[in-house]
Amino acid sequence: MRAWIPLPIVCVAAGCTTAPDPVVIKEPLGPPTPEIAMTQDYAIPVLMYHRVCDLTPDEAKSPILRDLSVSPKDFEEQVVLMKQEGFTFLHVSEIEKALNEGKPLPEKAVAITLDDGYRDNFTEAFPILKKYNVKATIFMVTNNFDRPNRLSWSDAHTMNSRAVSFQSHTVSHPDLTNASDEALRNELVESKLILEKGLGSTVTSVAYPAGAFDRRVSMAAEDAGYLAAWKKGGGTVQPYCAANPYELPRIRVHGRTDIDKFRQRVMSGTEILAMRARLAGQES
Ligand SMILES: [Zn+2]
Question: How confident is the model at residue 32 (pLDDT cuts 50, 70, 90)?
């Protein structure tokens, strides 16, 4: 192992003529951190999940539940695929910050988001996130805390200390486009305050319930102090999204999304960049 050995220092000015023993500083142990290529020209898939669980036979009769729920086996297979493909996992707050400040992001990045705050995010998804050392963001409906089958504050504290970031998904998950001005403001301001006070971390963004928003809703999100807001659909996050930070896109992962479809969705950003590079090559 290489070690840095500084030259002996002779303190002439102080009248001292003996050289102190050289100090050997050892390099820290552990594997070196791989270099991550950064780019100003990114196309990042932000994946939108809800539940990560196996459904009971009764639950499986519901098309809505089947659509919202990815099995733990499928979720792990998807995480492994992204790891093998060399994706860097980001929190949505890192993407928002880069957009806001015009900074670069990793060349091949992805973000996992989980909406609503189901308990299986802690019991099923979190062990997989930990196993593969992967970051994720939970968009939490704050009224859901400590409700049956929903995350407890204790779950949230445990996850928040281990690379799971919490952002707002409002207080009660209403259709914000139908909310009165006062209710709209409350949903946005209160949920931010509750999360920040409860978890001691900064909340920078909100995901619109069911992806529903309009101009009044996005302006209210800005007024409530959010840096960004996330909708449903719209492809990958690209630098041009900085012009509309309250309409950031996400890609749904459905219960029926098989691994081939998943690969297509998660590789969509990489393909956009490759296509741009090909076009740039043809033009030059
Ligand atoms: Zn939701």
Answer: low
